[in-house]
Amino acid sequence: MVSYRNRNIICTSEVTLGLISGKWKPLILGYLSDNTYRFNELQKLMPAITQKMLTIQLRDLENDGLIKRKVYAVVPPKVEYSLTELGERLVQFLDQLCEFGVDYMQQFPDAASNPAPGAAVNKQ
Q1: Which CATH number covers residue 62?
Q2: 123 inside domain
Q3: Beta bridge partners of 82
């Protein structure tokens, strides 16, 4: 067991999973792996995310050292987000997770259209 940030962890993969936990962080990292974006551009790419949630997620990713925030001294203010070197390393693993997801979905198609033998089917 290792102590990290006032938590006892059994496996260091817990740290990595904590960095990408949540619905939006993997998506944000994925978008930033292709390009540098401004706040409103990211929000347009993910229309279901609220402004508050995007702000929180970007702040978390910045505090964790995965993205950098560049502020330009212009009026109106201009802020751009991009990956750090550490963020670029993490995105390589996210790409592998995506590939695994594709493979998994092909091996185990949608349960609703192809239920497992003996599984209860919800008929309405």
Answers
A1: 1.10.10.10
A2: no
A3: 68
Total of domains in the chain: 1
Number of H helices, E strands in the chain: 5, 5
Contact between 57 and 28 under an 8 Å Cβ cutoff? The reply is yes
Q: Are residues 1 and 8 in contact, defined by beta-carbon separation less than 8 angstroms?
A: yes
pLDDT at 113: 58
Task: Report pLDDT digits (tens) over 35-83.
Answer: 999 999 999 999 999 999 999 999 999 999 999 999 999 998 899 999 9
Q: Is the pTM of this model over 0.85?
A: no
Whether 7 is in a domain gets the answer: no
**Owning domain of residue 41:** 24-107
Report the C-alpha dihedral over residues 108, 114, 119, 123, rounded to 10 degrees: 140
